[in-house]
Amino acid sequence: MHILTATNICKSFDGTKVLNGISIEVTKGQVLAIIGPSGSGKSTLLRCVTQLETVDSGEITICGERLVKNGADGKAVYSDKAACSKIGLHIGLVFQNFNLFPHLSVMQNITEAPIRVLHRSKAEAEAAATELLKKMDLADKADAYPCQLSGGQQQRVSIARALAMNPDILFFDEPTSALDPELTGEILKVIRELAAEHMTMVVVTHEMKFARDVADYVVFMDNGTIIEQGNPEQLFGNTQNDRTKAFLSRFN
Ligand code: ADP
Ligand code: MG
Questions:
Q1: Is the CB–ligand 1 distance for residue 38 below 6 Å?
Q2: Residues near 44 by Cβ (< 8 Å), separated by ≥ 6?
Q3: Other CB atoms within 10 A of residue 65 CB
Q4: Distance of CA 44 from the midpoint of ligand 1 (Å)
Q5: Residue 200: phi, psi to the nearest 5?
Q6: Mean per-residue pLDDT for 243-251?
Q7: Ligand 1 centre distance from Cα of residue 7 (Å)
Q8: Helices 151-163 and 106-116: angle between axes, nearest 10 degrees
Q9: Which of 53, 100, 109, 196 is the most exposed place for a label (fewest CB within 10 A)?
Q10: Is the ipTM of this complex over 0.95?
Q11: Distance from C-alpha of 252 to C-alpha of 246, rounded to nearest angstrom
Q12: Principal localization (predicted)?
């Protein structure tokens, strides 16, 4: 079953094409890794799929519901606002810089959306958040504020916050790149555990070993296009593509 299908996505900023006909698909339980140099359009792609940006053209379907399609003139036509909000509920997003609410406690950060958007009772939302905090090894941090936590802890809170909405698909945009190397491992471990539980995920990452181990499928982007895609063995172990080779050689 397809959780996400994005077809021929195009997006320009100020006349410059940043996404030039990108297509990706993710089936249930699959982990898709997106790799590529800085500026290649990875974040823009995630932002388009998660409704933080609009596309100029292309089609996106999430959990069988059409977010956007091409109109007769080839330009993007979005579903109505209510449908878009509903589709948004299928999605979780974890950013590079955690994006926690600084004035809210860890518990409040996690329960805010379930209470406000899903209309969960406070008790129910807090019980679920407590479980998630245990899972993230943060059981004792419920009353702490983001500024009192390490970067790795903040990132685990933001993963718990995303999971609290029970998303069908979770997107990570370079979840470890704002962290010191010694904190990177704890986040990668959490994502590995989610993968083992068959959480459907799209992970933009510069951690090549992690991508090779965890991803079912890898997409290499450069300059707003997909240069190569395939299973990790093929892409990391046996690429014949010169641009992929040049990119990967930076990590050796
Ligand atoms: P990546 O995540 O692969 O590093 P981005 O998607 O962040 O790449 O950026 C791709 C290109 O789009 C870059 O040239 C960037 O400067 C440009 N870009 C991204 N967001 C905006 C924006 N809101 N306005 C103008 N240009 C943008
Ligand atoms: Mg980026």
A1: yes
A2: 11, 18, 19, 53
A3: 13
A4: 6
A5: -80, 125
A6: 95
A7: 20
A8: 20
A9: 196
A10: yes
A11: 11
A12: membrane
